[in-house]
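REQUEST FORM: STRUCTURE PREDICTION
Request ID: SP-0412
Submitted by: Lab K.M.
Chain count: 1
Length (residues): 287
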Amino acid sequence: MTGVQARVETALARLLPAADALPPRLHAAMRYAVLDGGKRVRPLLAFAAGGLAGAAEARVEVAACAVEMIHAYSLVHDDLPCMDDDVLRRGKPTVHVEYDEATALLVGDALQSLAFQLLTEHPLNDDAARQLGMARLLALASGSRGMAGGQAIDLASVGKTLSLPELESMHIHKTGALIRAAVLLGARCGAPLADEDNLDHYAKCVGLAFQVVDDVLDYEAPTATLGKTAGKDAAAGKPTYVSLLGLARARELAEELRSEAHLALQPFGARAARLAELADFIVLRKF
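STATUS: Completed
RESULT:
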């Protein structure tokens, strides 16, 4: 994990515009939003899936950075006053607090554009049609049928009680879509997998599990540990797995999803060991 995280950090620093490039304030804010923070779960998943498919690490690196830029943009916009209005992210002031609201909006826009620039200007697969499909995959995961759509549902659900299927549908889009994209993009930097459906199911399980654990941690972990404001979802009246199921059942659900993710990896045998370990990390993490 440490090796991949360090490699991705170096690649992100290289692929982002220099802080003094015109316009310097925007580029400095982009680097502030992306660098020196986060667990890099999505890049870790991309590298693990790329290893499963025998992908060249230099190719996976670019795909992983593209996904991480989309993730960072979503956090910047999620923290804006018009959405969750938060002041802390990854243990430091949010972008709109450190800079200003207009700059934060542009940071998100620019990071999204840069992610797709990376997917189109770097050779990620020897098959051009397959690489084009990778760009389409990230677009779907990021847009109204993926992450942005999930955020819209989330905002519309404040103060409401959702059923478990409704809550899962929201998070399959808001959180799960980009995690699934990270796994599949990493794999598609390599040779086609005969059991990609199993890999896709694994990705869906860990995507949901990530959100369930996030809700548990938001309920019981302090702000200093999380690096963001603890308890904010509950205070805002947002439906969570803890508010719907209770703490004990939410933990059980995370364990069930972890078991299902492991089961989905069985056809790959020992080659999927890293993916299995990441499922464990996602469910057992404390931050």
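NOTES: The CA atoms of residues 43 and 114 lie 16 Å apart.
Reviewed by: T.R.
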